[in-house]
């Protein structure tokens, strides 16, 4: 079900040219199905270790659906929901249209919370106000774990290949994200955050 778009990320930014460059062209794409499958294997193994079951998945900003394919392999019994802001991709793949800023999961999926939420490469496209709102939404929707990837100022300066990474984003410090995430989640390492409602306990150095 289409949702009203309030996100500070312009919908027309995510057109055919954007996805051709960053997700389809082998010379410039930032990721592919094999990389996401490898990542999903890691997330599955770590959540299994933490005794966090995965029966429902919400993929916010699902793109080409690489996580859907990976989830079908590593969590074959889990119910997957893909939400996408790009009108172009919704037309191509039939995703639920929605923004992480104002998506209403119960209305769209019949569920208000999920065992695993994937939010990969989304928050950097939002301004500070919308990104703060989005993190609050992730906290409300999560009853288990969140896999989060967001480009930071330090990443842009030190860690990425700029030929394969979109720099037309809102760059913020890792501390900015941590200050907001720590209110709702336990940082488990590897991009995995567990909802404080999930009751996951870690030794002090496990999440650093």
What's the quick description here?
The protein is an alpha/beta fold and 208 residues long.
Write up what this structure looks like.
Helix 2 (33-49) packs across helix 3. The protein has one domain: Rossmann fold (3-Layer(aba) Sandwich), CATH 3.40.50.150. Helix content is 37%, strand content 18%. It contains 8 helices and 7 strands, in the order H-H-E-H-E-H-E-H-E-H-E-H-H-E-E. A 7-stranded mixed sheet has the order 3-2-1-4-5-7-6. The chain is globular. It has helices at residues 16-24, 33-49, 66-74, 87-93, 105-109, 128-141, 153-159, 174-181, and strands at 56-60, 79-84, 96-97, 114-120, 142-149, 185-189, 192-195. It has 208 residues and is an alpha/beta fold.
The domain tally reads 1
Label the structural class. Answer: alpha/beta
Radius of gyration: 16 Å
The average pLDDT score comes to 92
How many DSSP helices? 8
Descriptive terms for the model:
208 residues; alpha/beta; Rossmann fold; 7-stranded mixed beta sheet; disordered N terminus
Give a topology summary.
Layout: H1 16-24, H2 33-49, E1 56-60, H3 66-74, E2 79-84, H4 87-93, E3 96-97, H5 105-109, E4 114-120, H6 128-141, E5 142-149, H7 153-159, H8 174-181, E6 185-189, E7 192-195
Helix pairs in contact: 2-3
């Amino acid at each position: 079900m289409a949702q009203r778009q309030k996100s500070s990320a312009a919908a027309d930014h995510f057109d055919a040219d954007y996805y051709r460059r960053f997700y389809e062209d082998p010379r410039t794409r930032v990721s592919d199905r094999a990389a996401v499958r490898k990542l999903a294997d890691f997330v599955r193994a770590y959540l299994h270790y933490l005794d966090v079951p995965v029966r429902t998945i919400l993929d916010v900003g699902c793109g080409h659906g690489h996580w859907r394919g990976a989830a079908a392999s590593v969590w074959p019994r889990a119910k997957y929901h893909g939400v996408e802001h790009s009108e172009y991709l919704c037309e191509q793949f039939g995703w639920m249209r929605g923004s992480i800023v104002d998506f209403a999961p119960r209305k769209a999926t019949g569920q208000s919370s999920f065992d695993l939420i994937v939010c990969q490469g989304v928050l950097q496209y939002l301004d500070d106000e919308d990104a703060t709102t989005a993190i609050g939404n992730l906290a409300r929707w999560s009853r288990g774990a969140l896999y989060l990837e967001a480009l930071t100022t330090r990443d842009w300066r030190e860690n990425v290949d700029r030929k394969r990474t979109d720099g037309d984003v809102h760059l913020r410090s890792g501390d900015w994200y941590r200050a907001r995430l720590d209110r709702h989640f336990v940082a488990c390492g590897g991009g995995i955050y567990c909802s404080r409602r999930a009751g996951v306990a870690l030794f002090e150095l496990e999440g650093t």
